[in-house]
Every structure is written in structure tokens, then in C-alpha cells.
């Protein structure tokens, strides 16, 4: 197993650099509405990769030229915090790679957002990478899904995304940064409900025989991720619905009683 | 850590790991118990329609892409779409059913204007014969020159000179309270009531629109123990809230048919005493506190909260509440266990 890389992708025991097995995902955590001023926002953490996404809209387009008469216009901007990864300085907004990530996110979400419900409007998605340890794009896509749900934007399904690497003939799920720099990988985004794939990008070359297998594992992984996200979304929605009922409580101690009111509905 | 177990036939490194005992994902033991109880509820939603059958909130909560019901028996309403024989949800929220119409109401959404809503807006553009007003909605609302009351009488005709003086009445950045007149094409506003018009002597708050119910009246007053003159709170259905010094006297004047024309479109704040400012800030802080915990706002809730602050000696000292105190306040006022912010 002569490899030119410094790190051993899979050791004798079949474990990866960070001790995971080939199909083991990194731990995930999600936070809703970290940005109170946005219409919807979410932070998604997969392993050490942290991405916060804020969604504004549907709102009046900032410039008339951006209005589309029969559907909403999707605008995605990506920023990377200077401290997010070691050895890389501040990347500015004009960075080609970031623009491409933004364009990819926009293309991924366009078929799923029901934009015809919001004609002449704009939905702005601001992606901020706070910590980067491989898989910026998949984590950004997952965070965007959560932020859009938080904003109440109509979507036909979740979109979840994962990276799938290939080590010799073995697919590896959810790569971390050292793995990402050493082995070829594919980014898959899919609609877990139907198993449809909205995104599959590959920057390096792999053998065509391996592709199908990698895609299948990726789609399967996306379903697992969706189950996790759905659990969190429902938990939060449930709590919010509970809170919404508060107003309907019978008169509270110290509260204004009906008999104290000037006007009564009978 | 999560692990995918069911995968297509691929050479697995550790096929022995895959036993029926494993669930698809594994969690830290501390988290597991918590999740187990959630998952039970999950299963109960099922694909059947639990609408109306139970008052428990968990029962009819859906999220995007989830099958709500069969399209053969039900019609789809807002927040849903049909695919094949099924009606699916497009937002995270609660399922609601009216006869054969099934809709999903999102818990958080941008303001959707409806005729008759009381809204607070900010002028962002002055154009030919009309103002464009930001009302926190999907599109800017239009306030036509013909639908405002101008100085010099309610029934006065609008003349060309008025069109040239539009910026004197309402300029970019001015805040106003108005009513939604119609929502065809772009939403239209009007201020044809003495209660509506330009706002001053206060401060604007923004909360999620879902926290404000459509009520008979959105003008609330917290009477004088709250500041020397009392504090007015206007809760716009669009989630904008205006907290200001009470203008009780002005309304009285209006009733007598006397309108201070210059005053209505004045830009200048009155002199506001220190204690009034304190009261306004305290009421504003309370509103933001409710908003942070996603508690729907009402006048009784607000006056209860203010009374609570007074009883605990906060109003006099002007002291801010810390986290512990905030939670105690909410728990005592709402009688509900509110631990986490949302």
C-alpha cells in the first residue's frame, strides 16, 4: 500500500485518520436562529466545520434589475472568516472559489424552493464559514436548508449534502480536511424524500466504475443526515407551537380580568 | 457520531458491525434518552392526518417534504403541494384542516399583508403621487397621496401643490402607522384615520410577525404608573412595534374635531422627560424579552410584566434584568416553564 501521502487514509484496523470507520459521519449539531435580525438563520456544525447561514426574504429586490416577474430571485453570497482555517489569510468576496461555491448553492436550491410563490421578490442567502475542516460546500448546503426552513420559505423537500471520497476501492463518507486534500472526492446533494440528486460535483478524476457506488453511498448518507435534521426541526417547531399557545391561557394572577375591562365581547 | 448502516451491496470493511441491534444513527448516551422520547412522537405523526383529533402540539407538526394526507380526499391549501396521490408540506409548522382543505401554517414566516391589517412602515421612496413603504413584507407597500389626510381638513381635495410638497409630509426614513387598504398586485396602504399617520416621540422594535395576533385594536396604553404620562404601544401586525410617550390628549382633541395640522406631520420630538424615557426603554426591553422567547404579545401580558417589574423594584432603579431574573419573570407571568430561548 504505497501511498505518496503523509497521512494514512485507512489504517490496518480499517479506521480513518480521525478514528472513524469508512461510513461513519462526523458528529453534527444544529442551532436555529443564531442571527435574530435575519428572517431565518441556522448554524450547522459537522465535525470541526462550522457554517452559519442567514436568509433574508422573500423581500423587495435591492435593485429593480434583479426582479423576475414570475418568481423569486435567489442571491447567494459566501464569506469565509479569516480564522476559519490555519495558514490561509482572509479571502475576499471576489474570490473565484467562493463565487463558485455560491453559484453551486444557488443552483442546488433553485429547483427545490417554490420560487413561483414569491414573484418579483428576492431571497438572499448569506453563507459564512466560521470553521473549516473539510466539506465546506456540503455543510453550507445543509445549513442553508435549515436556514430556509427557519425563514418559512416554501420548499418541496430538504436538501442534504455530503462528501464521498474514494480510497483505492473503498468509498469514505464525510471527509475531513486531511482526507480531502489527499484523495479524490465527490460532493453529493440530494432530496432525501425521493432520493433525487440535485448536485454531484467532482473536481478530480475517478474511475467510472466507482462512481455509481460512491453516489449510492452518498445518497444513503444524505438520508441519515436528513433524519437528524428533521428531528431537530420538529423539536424546535414543537416548542414554538407550545409557546404560541401562551396567550390563550386563562387569566393569570395579577392579570387584567374581564370584569376590569371597559368593553366586553359577549 | 453518526453512521450509515444500510448501504447498497458494497464491500464493507467491517461487515460484522452491521447487526440488527444498531439503530441507523448512534448518539452520545446523554442525548439518546432525550431523542428516544422525541422519536416516539415522530412515529405517532405517521402519514395519517392527526388534525383536530388531539390538542397535543406534537401531533400535527410537519416539515418540508413530509406527506400530510392523500390528495384524493383532501384539497391542498397554503404551505402544501401535491405530488402524485399525496399532499405534502412545504414548510415546518402545524397542519390545519377546514373541512376538506388542508393547509400547513408555518411557525415563522415573513409578514403576509391582509386587507384591514394595521401596520407600521418606513418610507423608503417618494415617487410620483405616492410613497413606497417598507412594511416587512415580501414587497414594498404603496401609500398613495390620495389616501392620506393632509393638513387643512379631512375632506380637502388634493391639488398639484400637494404633490410637490410630498416630502414635507413624509420623507424617506419617516415611520408611519397605516392600514392595509387592498392587497391586489402590490399592497396599498391608507392613513385615513386620525389614529394613523406619522410617528414620533418613541422607538421602533422589530419582532417576528407571528408573535402578533390580529386583534380588535392594536393601540395599547400602559397608564401612568408607567412613566409620568403613560406609554403607548402600537403593535403592527407586520412585526414592527412602536413604543412612545402616550398621546392620550391628542386623541381627545381629535374627537372634538380639532386637528393640529402642523403637528400631525411634524418631525420634531417633544421634550421627553428622563422618567418617560426610562419607562419607554423598560417596556421596549420587555417586548424584546418576550420576542426572544417566542412568546406571543398581548396588552395584558405586557402590563403584567411591567407590574412584575414594578413589584420587584426594577422600574425605579432602572436596573436591567439578568438572565435568571428574566426567566423568573417569564415563568411567574406566563405560568409556564420557559427554559430555553428560541
UniProtKB/TrEMBL annotation, chain A:
<dbReference type="InterPro" id="IPR027408">
    <property type="entry name" value="PNPase/RNase_PH_dom_sf"/>
</dbReference>
<comment type="subunit">
    <text>Component of the RNA exosome complex. Specifically part of the catalytically inactive RNA exosome core complex (Exo-9) which may associate with the catalytic subunits RRP6 and DIS3 in cytoplasmic- and nuclear-specific RNA exosome complex forms. Exo-9 is formed by a hexameric base ring of RNase PH domain-containing subunits and a cap ring consisting of CSL4, RRP4 and RRP40.</text>
</comment>
<dbReference type="GO" id="GO:0071051">
    <property type="term" value="P:poly(A)-dependent snoRNA 3'-end processing"/>
</dbReference>
<dbReference type="Pfam" id="PF01138">
    <property type="entry name" value="RNase_PH"/>
</dbReference>
<dbReference type="GO" id="GO:0003723">
    <property type="term" value="F:RNA binding"/>
</dbReference>
<comment type="similarity">
    <text>Belongs to the RNase PH family.</text>
</comment>
<dbReference type="GO" id="GO:0071028">
    <property type="term" value="P:nuclear mRNA surveillance"/>
</dbReference>
<keyword id="KW-0963">Cytoplasm</keyword>
<dbReference type="InterPro" id="IPR020568">
    <property type="entry name" value="Ribosomal_Su5_D2-typ_SF"/>
</dbReference>
<keyword id="KW-0271">Exosome</keyword>
<dbReference type="InterPro" id="IPR036345">
    <property type="entry name" value="ExoRNase_PH_dom2_sf"/>
</dbReference>
<feature type="domain" description="Exoribonuclease phosphorolytic">
    <location>
        <begin position="24"/>
        <end position="153"/>
    </location>
</feature>
<dbReference type="GO" id="GO:0000176">
    <property type="term" value="C:nuclear exosome (RNase complex)"/>
</dbReference>
<dbReference type="InterPro" id="IPR001247">
    <property type="entry name" value="ExoRNase_PH_dom1"/>
</dbReference>
<dbReference type="GO" id="GO:0016075">
    <property type="term" value="P:rRNA catabolic process"/>
</dbReference>
<dbReference type="GO" id="GO:0005730">
    <property type="term" value="C:nucleolus"/>
</dbReference>
<dbReference type="GO" id="GO:0034475">
    <property type="term" value="P:U4 snRNA 3'-end processing"/>
</dbReference>
<protein>
    <recommendedName>
        <fullName>Ribosomal RNA-processing protein 41</fullName>
    </recommendedName>
</protein>
<dbReference type="GO" id="GO:0000177">
    <property type="term" value="C:cytoplasmic exosome (RNase complex)"/>
</dbReference>
<dbReference type="InterPro" id="IPR050080">
    <property type="entry name" value="RNase_PH"/>
</dbReference>
Automatic annotation (TrEMBL), chain B:
<protein>
    <recommendedName>
        <fullName>Ribosomal RNA-processing protein 4</fullName>
    </recommendedName>
</protein>
<dbReference type="GO" id="GO:0034475">
    <property type="term" value="P:U4 snRNA 3'-end processing"/>
</dbReference>
<feature type="domain" description="K Homology">
    <location>
        <begin position="202"/>
        <end position="244"/>
    </location>
</feature>
<dbReference type="Pfam" id="PF14382">
    <property type="entry name" value="ECR1_N"/>
</dbReference>
<dbReference type="GO" id="GO:0071028">
    <property type="term" value="P:nuclear mRNA surveillance"/>
</dbReference>
<dbReference type="GO" id="GO:0071035">
    <property type="term" value="P:nuclear polyadenylation-dependent rRNA catabolic process"/>
</dbReference>
<feature type="compositionally biased region" description="Acidic residues">
    <location>
        <begin position="32"/>
        <end position="45"/>
    </location>
</feature>
<dbReference type="Pfam" id="PF15985">
    <property type="entry name" value="KH_6"/>
</dbReference>
<dbReference type="InterPro" id="IPR026699">
    <property type="entry name" value="Exosome_RNA_bind1/RRP40/RRP4"/>
</dbReference>
<dbReference type="GO" id="GO:0071051">
    <property type="term" value="P:poly(A)-dependent snoRNA 3'-end processing"/>
</dbReference>
<keyword id="KW-0271">Exosome</keyword>
<feature type="domain" description="Exosome complex component N-terminal">
    <location>
        <begin position="62"/>
        <end position="98"/>
    </location>
</feature>
<feature type="region of interest" description="Disordered">
    <location>
        <begin position="24"/>
        <end position="63"/>
    </location>
</feature>
<dbReference type="InterPro" id="IPR004088">
    <property type="entry name" value="KH_dom_type_1"/>
</dbReference>
<comment type="similarity">
    <text>Belongs to the RRP4 family.</text>
</comment>
<dbReference type="GO" id="GO:0071034">
    <property type="term" value="P:CUT catabolic process"/>
</dbReference>
<keyword id="KW-0698">rRNA processing</keyword>
<keyword id="KW-0539">Nucleus</keyword>
<dbReference type="InterPro" id="IPR012340">
    <property type="entry name" value="NA-bd_OB-fold"/>
</dbReference>
<dbReference type="InterPro" id="IPR025721">
    <property type="entry name" value="Exosome_cplx_N_dom"/>
</dbReference>
<dbReference type="InterPro" id="IPR036612">
    <property type="entry name" value="KH_dom_type_1_sf"/>
</dbReference>
<keyword id="KW-0694">RNA-binding</keyword>
